[in-house]
Amino acid sequence: MASAASTLERHTGFENSPMTPAIGAELSGINLSEDLDEHVIANIRQSLLDHKVIFFRDQHLTPEQLLRFASRFGELEIHPATPKDQPNPEILRIEHGPKSKGQENMWHSDVTWRTEPSLGSVLSAVEIPAVGGDTLFANMNLAFENLPEDIRTKIVDMTAVHDIARVFAKRLGKKPEELHDKYPPVEHPLVRTHPETGLPALYVNAAFTSQIVGMDRQESDSLLATLYRASANPEIQCRFRWSQGAIAFWDNRASQHFAASDYFPARRIMQRATIKGDRPYFKANR
């Protein structure tokens, strides 16, 4: 009798191996540098929806190949941290080493400070340390479902402010007002409905969420601290050990990630392409 994995491989061209019961799968038997047909792309997208983050080994994509693959899932965005004179401005280069310790070591979803935050991000390993530098991912649908019922009921009708300046004012050497001229703080629901799966996901993060709308600061800070801790449960996580040429593709609408900065002063260089998304909303299941 054929295994489920081998059956899937015959129908999609690749094998899908779950990493944990909660989140993550490694896809093998596929070359992302090729011009993949629509059937394969559709199955990769379904794997992303099913597992919230998917991984590929030994890809070694050029920047152009990375952009071509990511663009199969939607229009790409340009991050304000990308140098203006950089070729391929849709590539965000994330480099840390002896003079720059990693700063992505908190649970977050990418660019939630945008009015329409990203659908997902595709991250490619260019250079990795001998040990360390793993990335962890958390299932934010389970993070929401695991909250006490009274908190779940309380937060589904609430919104919070997301602010780019909390992280990037210092990194870009700008005053918050300068960043707010182009990227004003935005409000998003504390719980968002996934536009493709319909599942609810907790949608606040310590990087960019500043305050719950309609609450005084102390009450807001207390509730946000509780919600931030929901990502930290190992039972809703997976951990990815990078290898040269590996790719991670995660759904920013359903997951959060944490880049472990335990490798300093070793060097770690990554390239990221980010796919535009849509405005978060919450729709109760009736």
Please tell me what the overall shape is.
globular
Strand order of the largest sheet: 1-2-3-13-5-15-4
SS field, number of helical segments: 8
**Based on DSSP secondary structure assignment, what is the total number of beta strands?**
15
Q: What's the pLDDT, averaged over the residues?
A: 93
What share of the residues does DSSP label as strand, in percent? Answer: 15-25%
CATH topology name, in short, is Double-stranded beta-helix
Q: Helix share of residues?
A: 25-40%
Q: What structural class should be given to the helix and strand makeup?
A: alpha+beta
CATH superfamily descriptor: Clavaminate synthase-like
Q: What number of domains?
A: 1
* N-to-C SSE string, H for helix and E for strand: HEEHEHEEEHHEHHEEEEHEEEE
Compute the CA-based radius of gyration: 19 Å
In the CATH classification, which architecture applies?
A: 4-Layer Sandwich
Oligomer: single chain
The major β-sheet equals: 7 strands, mixed
Low-confidence stretches: 1-11
CATH class: Alpha Beta
- Straight-line N-to-C gap: 41 Å
